[in-house]
Design a protein that fits this description.
Layout lengths: L1 E5 L4 H12 L3 E5 L8 H9 L6 E3 L6 H10 L4 E4 L8 H4 L1 H21 L4 E5 L25 H20 L2 E7 L2 E2 L8 H10 L3 E4 L6 E2 L2 E2 H12 L5 E6 L5 E2 H12 L4 E4 L15 H7 L7 H17 L3
Parallel strand pairs: 1-2, 1-4, 2-3, 4-5, 5-6, 6-11, 7-10, 8-13
Antiparallel strand pairs: 9-12
Helix pairs in contact: 1-8, 3-5, 5-6, 7-9, 7-11, 9-11
């Protein structure tokens, strides 16, 4: 199939493209290469494709540029991962989130309608659960109490997708990944920051005095969920993609220390605005309907990341 992957130079997007190439699909990759973090990492990920993808450097909020891609290619399906990421950054720069996560998704859905693309798999976010207190987070829980501009924009994306699916008979699957980590991960995420600072002998900031739990999910498991969703259109659907097994933040840090052979200097901090204490995915729906089954545990996943970091990032510097 010819599959359009937006945000294809991003962390999950690039891993997804590698898997889809392996399966023999034709890939069109769109990414605006924005400088939210060092674009060099995005360029490194693009090189992994060995020129096997058709690449467009386009901002999905730019309607004219985006439409050209639909005019020039006969697209079968869309995997939409392009978004402005980051909970904390959304407090400083909300307009970027409006552009990418609202205008961008409307553009994409509208061209899917016009060019009769019948199936879209959409990356949402576990952050949509906001102030939800029921644990584990289930897709049937109410998600109308977002606590960051980022999470509000991702929930809005799901609602727009539902409207388009209903009005124009498009199969749209929204996936809510939980704390994704692994090689080629984002430098603004905890694992990357912690590894870098521990190696450099700098302190790491640990929020809520370390009393946090995250449902850390390895990137290849997330990709597996995306591929399964791509193969199974089912009207409008929402699925959690997590490990279904929250890990205490301090245990996560100890695992990093173990593989680096070096202790962290910890700077305990209060809870940050927009943050939650615990994330925990109920993955029973994805297991039942998609056959999703996470395989990589935290010890193995952190080791893979540390090995990559030491050879590709630390060594290069």
């Amino acid at each position: 199939m010819k599959i359009l992957v937006t945000g294809g130079a991003g962390f999950i997007g690039s891993h997804l493209i590698l898997r889809l190439l392996d399966k023999g699909h034709d890939i069109i990759c769109v990414d605006n290469m924005n400088p939210y973090y060092d674009p060099k990492l995005k360029e490194t990920r693009l090189r992994l494709f060995n020129n096997k993808v058709k690449f467009y450097q386009v901002n999905i909020a730019n309607k004219e540029e985006l439409e050209k891609i639909f005019q020039e290619n006969k697209i079968d399906k869309i995997c939409h991962l392009a978004a402005q990421a980051g909970v904390r950054y959304s407090l400083e720069n909300p307009f970027v989130y409006g552009e990418s996560n609202l205008v961008g998704i409307i553009n994409l859905l509208e061209f899917a309608r016009q060019y009769r693309i019948k199936h879209i798999v959409l990356a949402s976010s576990s952050s949509v659960y906001g102030l939800n207190k029921k644990i584990p987070f289930n897709e049937d829980h109410r998600v109308d109490t977002p606590i960051s501009i980022y999470s509000a924009s991702k929930r809005a994306g799901e609602l727009l997708a539902h409207a388009y699916s209903h009005l124009f008979n498009i199969d749209i699957t929204c996936l809510r990944p939980f704390t994704v980590y692994g090689p080629y991960g984002r430098p603004d995420m905890a694992l990357f920051k912690f590894t870098k600072n521990i190696l450099e002998g700098k302190p790491i900031d640990v929020y809520n005095n370390g009393d946090m739990e995250r449902d850390f999910t390895y990137v290849t498991d997330i990709v597996d969920g995306f591929v399964r969703a791509l193969n199974k259109p089912m009207g409008f659907a929402i699925f959690n993609l997590g490990a279904g097994n929250p890990v205490k933040l301090m245990d996560f840090i100890r695992t990093i220390e173990e593989y680096l052979g070096k202790k962290a200097i910890i700077n305990f901090m209060p809870m940050q605005p927009g943050d939650v204490k615990t994330t925990f995915a109920d993955i029973s729906k994805a297991q039942e309907l998609l056959g999703y089954q996470p395989k990589v545990n935290v010890k193995e996943g952190v080791k893979n990341f540390v090995d990559w970091y030491l050879s590709e990032v630390h060594h290069a510097n």
